[in-house]
Amino acid sequence: MYDFKMGDWKYRSMIYAAVGTIHFYRKDFVPFNEGETYGVIMDKNKVLVARVQEEVLNLFGYELSEQQIGKALVAYGCPAQSVAERLAATRDEAKAA
């Protein structure tokens, strides 16, 4: 069985915090095209990225990695998901992240 460490929880929860912050400032979100890299997506959204990084650091004392902020932007910009169509996240999924 996978040993779910606090570090894994914090890594993932900070992505959730970033997605929530992006949603709050969604007026500034610039959509992206499928296949664009994290770097391109982050460049399109640099004002939003700076605000998300600042707020997560101020609120949680945690500096988001480029990968975390990229994952948050992709998660926010992806097509809507349905509870009926997707299983809940699992520890195995967290281990792979």
Description:
The structure is a single chain. The protein has 5 helices and no strands. The protein is mainly alpha-helical. The radius of gyration is 14 Å and the shape is globular. α1 packs across α3 (about 45-60). It has one domain. The chain has helices spanning about 5-25, 40-45, 45-60, 65-75, 90-95. About 20% of the residues are buried.
Offer a concise description of the structure.
The protein has 97 residues and is mostly helical. It is built from 5 helices and no strands.
What's the structural blueprint in terms of helices and strands?
Blueprint: H1 6-24, H2 38-44, H3 46-60, H4 66-77, H5 91-96
Helix pairs in contact: 1-3, 1-4, 2-4
What keyword list fits this structure?
97 residues; mainly alpha; 5 helices; 0% strand
CA radius of gyration: 14 Å
Count the beta strands. 0
Strand content: under 5%
Taken from the alpha-carbon principal axes, the silhouette is: globular
SS content category:
mainly alpha
Write down the oligomeric state.
single chain
Q: Count helical runs.
A: 5
Topology as a string of helices (H) and strands (E): HHHHH
Low-confidence sequence ranges? none
N-to-C terminal Cα separation, in Å?
17 Å
Share of helix, binned: 55-70%
Number of domains: 1
Largest sheet: none
Mean pLDDT figure: 87
